[in-house]
């Protein structure tokens, strides 16, 4: 069914399979192991942490573990907020109870 060299353009890659998908076992979940973040213009730590928390299914557990590595008097607080109709995550790092 899948033959090379019949029609097509020069150097065209032909992928055999259902709808051109890569070859993987049926039902196998593909997980990303590496994520690149381009911070050429800088990135605020609280905003980057909030964005990454959106990717974690159990963010309360992650925040609890994060708080376990801080010194006494330092705490990370993450909460969902809605401003102007847009929902997002707000992360604050509190030192002695102050942001």
Key features?
single chain; alpha+beta; 20% strand; 99 residues; extended; 2 helices; two-stranded antiparallel sheet
Low-confidence segments = none
The largest sheet has its strands arranged as 1-2
Helix percent band = 10-25%
Q: How many domains would you count in the coordinates?
A: 1
- Category from helices, strands and their pairing: alpha+beta
Mean pLDDT: 78
Q: What sequence of helices (H) and strands (E) makes up the elements?
A: HHEE
Report how far apart the termini are: 64 Å
Give the DSSP E fraction (strand runs of 2 or more residues).
15-25%
Radius of gyration: 23 Å
Biggest sheet overview: 2 strands, antiparallel
Describe the global form. Answer: extended
So how many helices? 2
DSSP summary, beta strand count: 2
């Amino acid at each position: 069914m899948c033959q090379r060299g019949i029609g097509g353009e020069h150097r065209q890659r032909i992928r055999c399979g259902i709808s051109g998908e890569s070859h993987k076992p049926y039902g196998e979940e593909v997980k990303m192991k590496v994520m690149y973040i381009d911070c050429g213009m800088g990135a605020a730590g609280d905003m980057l942490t909030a964005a990454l928390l959106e990717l974690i299914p159990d963010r309360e557990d992650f925040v609890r573990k994060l708080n376990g590595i801080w010194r006494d008097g330092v705490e990370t607080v993450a909460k969902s907020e809605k401003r102007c109709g847009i929902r997002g995550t707000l992360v604050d790092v509190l030192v002695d109870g102050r942001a």
